[in-house]
Design brief:
Blueprint lengths: L15 E4 L2 E7 L4 H12 L4 H10 L5 H7 L17 H9 L7 E3 L2 E2 L9 E2 L5 E3 L9 H11 L19 E3 L6 E6 L8 E6 H5 L9 E2 H21 L1 H49 L5 H30 L8 H9 L9 H7 E6 L3 E3 L2 E3 L2 E5 L3 E2 L29 H34 L9
Parallel strand pairs: 7-11
Antiparallel strand pairs: 1-2, 3-6, 4-5, 8-9, 9-10, 11-14, 12-13, 14-15
Helix pairs in contact: 1-5, 2-4, 7-8, 8-9
Length: 453
Protein backbone atom coordinates (compact mmCIF):
# COMPACT_ATOMS: atom_id res chain seq x y z
CA UNK A 1 0.00 0.00 0.00
CA UNK A 2 1.50 3.33 -1.06
CA UNK A 3 1.44 6.65 0.75
CA UNK A 4 -1.77 7.72 -1.00
CA UNK A 5 -3.80 5.14 0.88
CA UNK A 6 -3.46 6.85 4.25
CA UNK A 7 -4.97 10.20 3.26
CA UNK A 8 -8.58 11.26 3.61
CA UNK A 9 -10.80 11.26 0.55
CA UNK A 10 -13.49 13.67 1.81
CA UNK A 11 -15.12 15.49 -1.12
CA UNK A 12 -13.22 13.47 -3.72
CA UNK A 13 -14.43 11.45 -6.70
CA UNK A 14 -14.22 7.70 -7.24
CA UNK A 15 -11.15 7.08 -9.39
CA UNK A 16 -8.97 9.67 -7.65
CA UNK A 17 -6.97 9.99 -4.45
CA UNK A 18 -5.69 13.17 -2.90
CA UNK A 19 -2.01 14.07 -3.05
CA UNK A 20 -0.59 13.82 0.51
CA UNK A 21 1.73 16.75 -0.20
CA UNK A 22 -1.01 18.99 -1.63
CA UNK A 23 -4.52 18.05 -0.51
CA UNK A 24 -6.23 20.24 -3.12
CA UNK A 25 -4.59 18.17 -5.86
CA UNK A 26 -6.04 14.87 -7.13
CA UNK A 27 -4.01 11.93 -8.38
CA UNK A 28 -5.21 8.89 -10.30
CA UNK A 29 -6.29 5.84 -8.33
CA UNK A 30 -4.74 3.05 -10.37
CA UNK A 31 -7.31 0.52 -9.14
CA UNK A 32 -10.52 2.56 -9.54
CA UNK A 33 -9.71 4.67 -12.62
CA UNK A 34 -10.01 1.69 -15.04
CA UNK A 35 -13.46 0.92 -13.59
CA UNK A 36 -14.62 4.48 -14.33
CA UNK A 37 -13.18 4.34 -17.83
CA UNK A 38 -14.91 1.01 -18.36
CA UNK A 39 -18.30 2.53 -17.41
CA UNK A 40 -17.99 5.25 -20.04
CA UNK A 41 -16.85 2.76 -22.69
CA UNK A 42 -19.76 0.45 -21.84
CA UNK A 43 -22.29 3.23 -22.44
CA UNK A 44 -20.72 3.94 -25.82
CA UNK A 45 -20.90 0.22 -26.64
CA UNK A 46 -24.67 0.39 -26.12
CA UNK A 47 -25.07 -1.00 -22.60
CA UNK A 48 -27.57 0.42 -20.12
CA UNK A 49 -26.67 1.58 -16.62
CA UNK A 50 -28.56 -1.41 -15.24
CA UNK A 51 -26.40 -3.80 -17.26
CA UNK A 52 -23.24 -2.00 -16.11
CA UNK A 53 -24.28 -2.24 -12.46
CA UNK A 54 -25.15 -5.94 -12.84
CA UNK A 55 -21.80 -6.71 -14.50
CA UNK A 56 -19.80 -4.97 -11.77
CA UNK A 57 -21.83 -6.76 -9.10
CA UNK A 58 -21.32 -10.14 -10.79
CA UNK A 59 -17.56 -9.53 -10.93
CA UNK A 60 -17.51 -8.54 -7.21
CA UNK A 61 -16.03 -5.11 -7.87
CA UNK A 62 -15.98 -3.01 -4.68
CA UNK A 63 -18.37 -0.07 -4.57
CA UNK A 64 -16.75 3.37 -4.03
CA UNK A 65 -17.16 3.53 -0.23
CA UNK A 66 -15.92 -0.06 0.21
CA UNK A 67 -12.94 0.68 -2.05
CA UNK A 68 -12.03 3.79 -0.06
CA UNK A 69 -12.26 1.85 3.19
CA UNK A 70 -9.99 -0.81 1.71
CA UNK A 71 -7.32 1.75 0.85
CA UNK A 72 -7.89 3.57 4.17
CA UNK A 73 -9.12 6.76 2.50
CA UNK A 74 -11.34 7.73 5.45
CA UNK A 75 -14.79 7.65 3.80
CA UNK A 76 -17.89 6.62 5.73
CA UNK A 77 -20.38 4.08 4.43
CA UNK A 78 -23.80 2.76 5.40
CA UNK A 79 -23.46 -0.02 7.99
CA UNK A 80 -25.67 -2.44 6.04
CA UNK A 81 -24.33 -1.65 2.57
CA UNK A 82 -23.13 -4.66 0.58
CA UNK A 83 -19.52 -3.97 -0.45
CA UNK A 84 -19.96 -5.30 -4.01
CA UNK A 85 -23.63 -4.48 -4.68
CA UNK A 86 -23.58 -1.71 -7.29
CA UNK A 87 -26.70 0.41 -7.62
CA UNK A 88 -27.93 2.14 -10.74
CA UNK A 89 -27.86 5.49 -8.91
CA UNK A 90 -24.13 5.10 -8.18
CA UNK A 91 -23.34 4.40 -11.84
CA UNK A 92 -25.42 7.40 -12.99
CA UNK A 93 -23.69 9.69 -10.49
CA UNK A 94 -20.27 8.63 -11.77
CA UNK A 95 -21.26 9.09 -15.42
CA UNK A 96 -22.46 12.65 -14.73
CA UNK A 97 -19.31 13.94 -13.05
CA UNK A 98 -17.35 16.50 -15.04
CA UNK A 99 -14.33 15.93 -12.83
CA UNK A 100 -13.38 12.86 -14.88
CA UNK A 101 -12.37 15.18 -17.76
CA UNK A 102 -9.69 16.66 -15.51
CA UNK A 103 -11.85 19.60 -14.44
CA UNK A 104 -12.36 21.12 -11.01
CA UNK A 105 -16.00 22.19 -10.65
CA UNK A 106 -17.10 24.53 -7.84
CA UNK A 107 -20.48 26.01 -6.88
CA UNK A 108 -22.39 22.99 -8.22
CA UNK A 109 -25.27 23.54 -5.77
CA UNK A 110 -26.64 26.55 -3.91
CA UNK A 111 -29.13 27.26 -1.10
CA UNK A 112 -31.90 29.83 -1.35
CA UNK A 113 -31.21 31.03 2.21
CA UNK A 114 -28.90 30.00 5.00
CA UNK A 115 -31.90 28.49 6.81
CA UNK A 116 -32.81 26.22 3.93
CA UNK A 117 -31.59 22.61 4.01
CA UNK A 118 -32.39 21.93 0.37
CA UNK A 119 -29.71 22.39 -2.26
CA UNK A 120 -30.45 23.16 -5.88
CA UNK A 121 -28.23 22.87 -8.95
CA UNK A 122 -26.88 26.14 -10.27
CA UNK A 123 -25.15 25.48 -13.61
CA UNK A 124 -24.96 29.18 -14.46
CA UNK A 125 -23.01 29.86 -11.24
CA UNK A 126 -20.51 27.00 -11.63
CA UNK A 127 -16.81 27.77 -11.57
CA UNK A 128 -14.86 25.41 -13.84
CA UNK A 129 -11.07 25.08 -13.90
CA UNK A 130 -9.88 22.82 -16.69
CA UNK A 131 -6.79 20.59 -16.68
CA UNK A 132 -6.44 20.84 -12.91
CA UNK A 133 -5.81 17.10 -12.42
CA UNK A 134 -5.28 13.99 -14.62
CA UNK A 135 -8.25 13.10 -16.83
CA UNK A 136 -9.75 9.61 -16.84
CA UNK A 137 -11.86 10.20 -19.99
CA UNK A 138 -11.52 12.87 -22.67
CA UNK A 139 -14.06 15.61 -23.21
CA UNK A 140 -15.46 14.04 -26.39
CA UNK A 141 -16.15 10.73 -24.64
CA UNK A 142 -17.87 12.47 -21.74
CA UNK A 143 -20.01 14.54 -24.14
CA UNK A 144 -21.04 11.48 -26.16
CA UNK A 145 -22.05 9.63 -23.00
CA UNK A 146 -24.18 12.56 -21.82
CA UNK A 147 -25.90 12.67 -25.21
CA UNK A 148 -26.60 8.96 -25.08
CA UNK A 149 -27.90 9.22 -21.52
CA UNK A 150 -30.47 11.83 -22.57
CA UNK A 151 -32.53 9.13 -24.31
CA UNK A 152 -34.14 6.29 -22.44
CA UNK A 153 -33.46 3.01 -24.23
CA UNK A 154 -35.86 0.30 -23.16
CA UNK A 155 -34.77 -3.33 -23.73
CA UNK A 156 -36.89 -5.18 -26.27
CA UNK A 157 -39.10 -8.00 -25.03
CA UNK A 158 -37.78 -10.45 -27.61
CA UNK A 159 -34.01 -9.88 -27.40
CA UNK A 160 -33.75 -8.13 -24.03
CA UNK A 161 -31.37 -5.55 -25.57
CA UNK A 162 -32.09 -1.90 -26.47
CA UNK A 163 -31.59 -0.80 -30.05
CA UNK A 164 -28.56 1.53 -30.40
CA UNK A 165 -30.26 3.66 -33.06
CA UNK A 166 -32.79 5.00 -30.55
CA UNK A 167 -31.95 8.62 -29.80
CA UNK A 168 -29.91 8.92 -33.01
CA UNK A 169 -32.76 9.01 -35.56
CA UNK A 170 -34.87 12.19 -35.78
CA UNK A 171 -37.89 13.08 -37.88
CA UNK A 172 -37.11 15.75 -40.47
CA UNK A 173 -40.60 17.29 -40.33
CA UNK A 174 -41.50 17.56 -36.64
CA UNK A 175 -38.05 17.09 -35.07
CA UNK A 176 -39.15 14.32 -32.67
CA UNK A 177 -37.12 11.18 -32.10
CA UNK A 178 -37.97 8.08 -34.09
CA UNK A 179 -39.75 5.23 -32.31
CA UNK A 180 -38.40 1.68 -32.56
CA UNK A 181 -40.83 -1.18 -33.00
CA UNK A 182 -39.91 -4.83 -32.90
CA UNK A 183 -42.27 -7.77 -32.53
CA UNK A 184 -44.23 -10.46 -34.32
CA UNK A 185 -46.49 -9.61 -37.23
CA UNK A 186 -48.23 -12.98 -37.45
CA UNK A 187 -46.37 -13.73 -40.67
CA UNK A 188 -43.48 -16.18 -40.70
CA UNK A 189 -40.02 -14.67 -41.15
CA UNK A 190 -41.47 -11.15 -41.34
CA UNK A 191 -41.18 -9.61 -37.84
CA UNK A 192 -41.54 -5.93 -37.00
CA UNK A 193 -38.09 -4.31 -36.89
CA UNK A 194 -38.43 -0.72 -38.01
CA UNK A 195 -38.55 2.91 -36.92
CA UNK A 196 -41.34 5.45 -37.33
CA UNK A 197 -41.93 9.01 -36.13
CA UNK A 198 -42.92 9.11 -32.45
CA UNK A 199 -45.35 11.97 -33.15
CA UNK A 200 -47.14 9.76 -35.66
CA UNK A 201 -47.36 6.89 -33.19
CA UNK A 202 -47.98 8.60 -29.84
CA UNK A 203 -49.56 11.98 -30.56
CA UNK A 204 -52.69 11.21 -32.59
CA UNK A 205 -50.69 11.02 -35.80
CA UNK A 206 -49.83 14.71 -35.86
CA UNK A 207 -46.99 13.80 -38.25
CA UNK A 208 -46.52 11.24 -41.01
CA UNK A 209 -45.05 7.77 -40.51
CA UNK A 210 -41.50 8.17 -41.90
CA UNK A 211 -41.26 4.36 -41.96
CA UNK A 212 -37.69 3.05 -42.08
CA UNK A 213 -36.43 -0.52 -41.69
CA UNK A 214 -33.56 -1.08 -39.26
CA UNK A 215 -31.54 -3.21 -41.69
CA UNK A 216 -31.68 -0.46 -44.32
CA UNK A 217 -30.47 2.34 -42.04
CA UNK A 218 -27.75 0.18 -40.47
CA UNK A 219 -26.33 -0.69 -43.90
CA UNK A 220 -26.57 2.94 -44.99
CA UNK A 221 -24.73 4.23 -41.91
CA UNK A 222 -22.02 1.59 -42.24
CA UNK A 223 -21.50 2.38 -45.93
CA UNK A 224 -21.40 6.12 -45.17
CA UNK A 225 -18.76 5.61 -42.48
CA UNK A 226 -16.72 3.47 -44.87
CA UNK A 227 -17.02 6.03 -47.64
CA UNK A 228 -16.06 9.04 -45.51
CA UNK A 229 -13.25 7.17 -43.74
CA UNK A 230 -11.82 5.98 -47.06
CA UNK A 231 -11.88 9.54 -48.41
CA UNK A 232 -10.18 10.84 -45.24
CA UNK A 233 -7.36 8.28 -45.46
CA UNK A 234 -6.70 8.90 -49.14
CA UNK A 235 -7.30 12.67 -49.23
CA UNK A 236 -6.46 14.01 -45.78
CA UNK A 237 -5.41 17.50 -46.93
CA UNK A 238 -8.45 17.95 -49.19
CA UNK A 239 -10.72 16.70 -46.40
CA UNK A 240 -9.41 19.26 -43.91
CA UNK A 241 -9.79 22.04 -46.46
CA UNK A 242 -13.37 21.06 -47.34
CA UNK A 243 -14.43 20.81 -43.71
CA UNK A 244 -12.93 24.21 -42.94
CA UNK A 245 -14.65 25.84 -45.90
CA UNK A 246 -18.06 24.33 -45.08
CA UNK A 247 -17.69 25.14 -41.38
CA UNK A 248 -16.71 28.74 -42.15
CA UNK A 249 -19.74 29.09 -44.42
CA UNK A 250 -22.10 27.75 -41.77
CA UNK A 251 -20.57 29.95 -39.09
CA UNK A 252 -20.77 33.03 -41.28
CA UNK A 253 -24.48 32.40 -41.87
CA UNK A 254 -25.06 31.97 -38.13
CA UNK A 255 -23.04 35.09 -37.35
CA UNK A 256 -25.10 37.18 -39.78
CA UNK A 257 -28.24 36.11 -37.95
CA UNK A 258 -26.64 36.85 -34.57
CA UNK A 259 -25.55 40.33 -35.70
CA UNK A 260 -29.04 41.05 -37.03
CA UNK A 261 -30.64 39.96 -33.74
CA UNK A 262 -28.06 41.99 -31.79
CA UNK A 263 -28.90 45.12 -33.79
CA UNK A 264 -32.64 44.73 -33.17
CA UNK A 265 -32.12 44.02 -29.44
CA UNK A 266 -29.81 47.01 -29.00
CA UNK A 267 -32.22 49.32 -30.82
CA UNK A 268 -35.14 48.14 -28.70
CA UNK A 269 -33.14 48.61 -25.50
CA UNK A 270 -32.35 52.21 -26.49
CA UNK A 271 -36.05 52.77 -27.17
CA UNK A 272 -36.97 51.45 -23.72
CA UNK A 273 -34.39 53.72 -22.09
CA UNK A 274 -36.01 56.70 -23.83
CA UNK A 275 -39.49 55.57 -22.82
CA UNK A 276 -38.45 55.21 -19.19
CA UNK A 277 -37.00 58.73 -19.26
CA UNK A 278 -40.24 60.13 -20.71
CA UNK A 279 -42.24 58.12 -18.16
CA UNK A 280 -40.38 59.77 -15.28
CA UNK A 281 -40.91 63.20 -16.82
CA UNK A 282 -44.66 62.54 -17.24
CA UNK A 283 -44.93 61.30 -13.66
CA UNK A 284 -43.04 64.31 -12.35
CA UNK A 285 -45.44 66.59 -14.23
CA UNK A 286 -48.47 64.71 -12.77
CA UNK A 287 -49.62 63.64 -16.23
CA UNK A 288 -50.10 59.96 -15.23
CA UNK A 289 -51.28 58.44 -11.93
CA UNK A 290 -48.85 56.69 -9.63
CA UNK A 291 -50.39 53.22 -10.21
CA UNK A 292 -49.94 53.42 -13.99
CA UNK A 293 -46.44 54.76 -13.52
CA UNK A 294 -45.47 51.78 -11.30
CA UNK A 295 -46.97 49.20 -13.70
CA UNK A 296 -45.31 50.66 -16.79
CA UNK A 297 -41.98 51.07 -15.02
CA UNK A 298 -42.02 47.42 -13.91
CA UNK A 299 -42.84 46.20 -17.44
CA UNK A 300 -40.14 48.32 -19.06
CA UNK A 301 -37.63 47.26 -16.43
CA UNK A 302 -38.33 43.56 -16.93
CA UNK A 303 -38.05 43.89 -20.71
CA UNK A 304 -34.78 45.79 -20.43
CA UNK A 305 -33.35 43.13 -18.11
CA UNK A 306 -34.29 40.42 -20.61
CA UNK A 307 -32.74 42.39 -23.47
CA UNK A 308 -29.53 42.86 -21.46
CA UNK A 309 -29.20 39.08 -21.14
CA UNK A 310 -29.93 38.54 -24.84
CA UNK A 311 -27.43 41.21 -25.89
CA UNK A 312 -24.71 39.75 -23.64
CA UNK A 313 -25.30 36.26 -25.05
CA UNK A 314 -25.27 37.41 -28.68
CA UNK A 315 -22.16 39.50 -28.12
CA UNK A 316 -20.39 36.50 -26.55
CA UNK A 317 -21.26 34.37 -29.60
CA UNK A 318 -19.86 37.01 -31.94
CA UNK A 319 -16.70 37.44 -29.84
CA UNK A 320 -16.07 33.68 -29.84
CA UNK A 321 -16.65 33.39 -33.60
CA UNK A 322 -12.97 33.58 -34.48
CA UNK A 323 -11.92 31.45 -31.51
CA UNK A 324 -13.94 28.37 -32.56
CA UNK A 325 -11.67 26.01 -34.47
CA UNK A 326 -12.59 23.24 -36.87
CA UNK A 327 -12.19 19.80 -35.33
CA UNK A 328 -11.41 17.91 -38.52
CA UNK A 329 -8.17 16.67 -36.98
CA UNK A 330 -10.14 14.90 -34.24
CA UNK A 331 -12.24 13.09 -36.82
CA UNK A 332 -9.03 12.01 -38.56
CA UNK A 333 -7.72 10.61 -35.27
CA UNK A 334 -11.01 8.75 -34.83
CA UNK A 335 -10.73 7.22 -38.31
CA UNK A 336 -7.15 6.12 -37.67
CA UNK A 337 -8.21 4.21 -34.55
CA UNK A 338 -10.15 1.78 -36.74
CA UNK A 339 -8.38 -0.53 -39.15
CA UNK A 340 -11.54 -1.78 -40.88
CA UNK A 341 -15.31 -1.40 -40.78
CA UNK A 342 -16.61 -4.90 -41.23
CA UNK A 343 -19.94 -4.78 -39.41
CA UNK A 344 -22.35 -2.35 -37.79
CA UNK A 345 -22.07 -2.01 -34.00
CA UNK A 346 -23.27 0.31 -31.25
CA UNK A 347 -19.72 1.45 -30.49
CA UNK A 348 -19.05 2.35 -34.12
CA UNK A 349 -22.36 4.20 -34.35
CA UNK A 350 -21.92 6.21 -31.15
CA UNK A 351 -18.36 7.25 -31.95
CA UNK A 352 -18.88 8.28 -35.57
CA UNK A 353 -22.51 9.46 -35.82
CA UNK A 354 -24.05 12.39 -33.97
CA UNK A 355 -27.57 12.21 -35.42
CA UNK A 356 -29.53 11.03 -38.45
CA UNK A 357 -32.38 13.03 -40.02
CA UNK A 358 -35.07 10.88 -41.67
CA UNK A 359 -37.34 12.40 -44.33
CA UNK A 360 -40.69 11.05 -45.44
CA UNK A 361 -40.54 8.58 -48.31
CA UNK A 362 -41.98 9.55 -51.71
CA UNK A 363 -42.71 7.57 -54.85
CA UNK A 364 -41.17 8.69 -58.13
CA UNK A 365 -42.23 6.69 -61.20
CA UNK A 366 -43.43 3.92 -58.93
CA UNK A 367 -40.09 3.71 -57.06
CA UNK A 368 -40.03 4.50 -53.30
CA UNK A 369 -37.22 6.91 -52.40
CA UNK A 370 -36.33 8.36 -49.01
CA UNK A 371 -33.76 11.04 -48.10
CA UNK A 372 -31.52 10.29 -45.12
CA UNK A 373 -29.10 12.91 -43.72
CA UNK A 374 -26.21 11.61 -41.60
CA UNK A 375 -24.34 14.03 -39.32
CA UNK A 376 -20.94 12.80 -38.20
CA UNK A 377 -19.16 13.58 -34.94
CA UNK A 378 -16.95 16.70 -35.09
CA UNK A 379 -17.61 17.47 -38.79
CA UNK A 380 -21.41 17.37 -39.13
CA UNK A 381 -22.88 16.52 -42.52
CA UNK A 382 -20.21 15.61 -45.07
CA UNK A 383 -20.74 14.45 -48.65
CA UNK A 384 -17.95 12.56 -50.35
CA UNK A 385 -17.26 13.88 -53.88
CA UNK A 386 -18.83 11.72 -56.60
CA UNK A 387 -15.48 10.90 -58.22
CA UNK A 388 -14.22 9.51 -54.90
CA UNK A 389 -17.22 7.30 -54.23
CA UNK A 390 -16.87 3.60 -55.01
CA UNK A 391 -19.24 2.37 -57.68
CA UNK A 392 -20.61 -0.91 -56.34
CA UNK A 393 -22.03 -3.52 -58.64
CA UNK A 394 -25.70 -3.54 -57.78
CA UNK A 395 -27.21 -6.97 -57.96
CA UNK A 396 -30.49 -6.81 -59.84
CA UNK A 397 -33.02 -8.92 -57.97
CA UNK A 398 -35.10 -11.28 -60.07
CA UNK A 399 -38.80 -11.89 -59.86
CA UNK A 400 -40.36 -15.28 -59.29
CA UNK A 401 -40.24 -16.00 -63.05
CA UNK A 402 -36.61 -14.98 -63.31
CA UNK A 403 -37.36 -11.55 -64.78
CA UNK A 404 -35.70 -8.31 -63.67
CA UNK A 405 -37.93 -5.67 -62.02
CA UNK A 406 -38.89 -2.97 -64.51
CA UNK A 407 -37.60 -0.06 -62.39
CA UNK A 408 -34.10 -1.58 -62.77
CA UNK A 409 -34.30 -2.11 -66.57
CA UNK A 410 -32.64 0.01 -69.24
CA UNK A 411 -34.61 1.88 -71.88
CA UNK A 412 -34.00 -0.83 -74.49
CA UNK A 413 -35.12 -3.56 -72.10
CA UNK A 414 -38.24 -1.59 -71.26
CA UNK A 415 -39.04 -1.15 -74.96
CA UNK A 416 -38.74 -4.89 -75.57
CA UNK A 417 -40.88 -5.60 -72.52
CA UNK A 418 -43.63 -3.26 -73.74
CA UNK A 419 -43.63 -4.85 -77.22
CA UNK A 420 -43.86 -8.30 -75.64
CA UNK A 421 -46.75 -7.08 -73.48
CA UNK A 422 -48.58 -5.79 -76.56
CA UNK A 423 -48.17 -9.13 -78.33
CA UNK A 424 -49.27 -11.04 -75.25
CA UNK A 425 -52.32 -8.81 -74.85
CA UNK A 426 -53.26 -9.22 -78.54
CA UNK A 427 -53.03 -13.01 -78.28
CA UNK A 428 -55.09 -12.95 -75.09
CA UNK A 429 -57.84 -10.83 -76.72
CA UNK A 430 -57.89 -13.03 -79.84
CA UNK A 431 -58.13 -16.20 -77.72
CA UNK A 432 -60.97 -14.71 -75.71
CA UNK A 433 -62.90 -13.76 -78.84
CA UNK A 434 -62.34 -17.23 -80.33
CA UNK A 435 -63.60 -18.88 -77.13
CA UNK A 436 -66.69 -16.69 -77.10
CA UNK A 437 -67.36 -17.50 -80.77
CA UNK A 438 -67.01 -21.26 -80.15
CA UNK A 439 -69.35 -21.08 -77.14
CA UNK A 440 -71.92 -19.18 -79.20
CA UNK A 441 -71.68 -21.72 -82.03
CA UNK A 442 -72.23 -24.60 -79.62
CA UNK A 443 -75.38 -22.98 -78.25
CA UNK A 444 -76.83 -22.29 -81.71
CA UNK A 445 -75.95 -25.72 -83.10
CA UNK A 446 -79.07 -27.47 -84.51
CA UNK A 447 -81.14 -24.36 -84.62
CA UNK A 448 -82.23 -22.20 -87.54
CA UNK A 449 -79.66 -19.62 -86.47
CA UNK A 450 -76.73 -21.96 -87.01
CA UNK A 451 -76.70 -21.17 -90.73
CA UNK A 452 -76.05 -17.52 -89.95
CA UNK A 453 -72.73 -18.32 -88.36
Amino acid sequence: MNELTIIKQNGGAYGYLRDPNQKSRWLLDEDAAPIVRRMFDSVIQGKTVTQIAEELTAESVLIPTAHWQKVNAGMRSAPNAHPTKWSVATVITILRKQEYMGWTVLNKTVKETYKSKRKAAAPEDMLIFKDSHPAIVDEETWTVVQRLRETRRCPQRITGEPNPLTGILYCADCGHKMYHKKGNTGRENQPHHEYCCSSYRHYSRSCTCHYLRVSIIENLILESIRSVSGYVRNNEAQFIQRVREESALQKETAMRESRKKLTHATRRRDEISGLIKKLYESYAADKIPEQHFAELLAEYGAERTTLDCVIAKLQAEIDNYNNDTVRADKFIELVKRYTEFTEFSAGLLNEFVQKVIVHEAVKVDGVRTQDIEIFFTFIGKFDVPMEERPQPQIARPALSRGRTPRHLMTEEELKREREADHRYYARKVAAKKAAEQAERAAILQGTTYAAAL
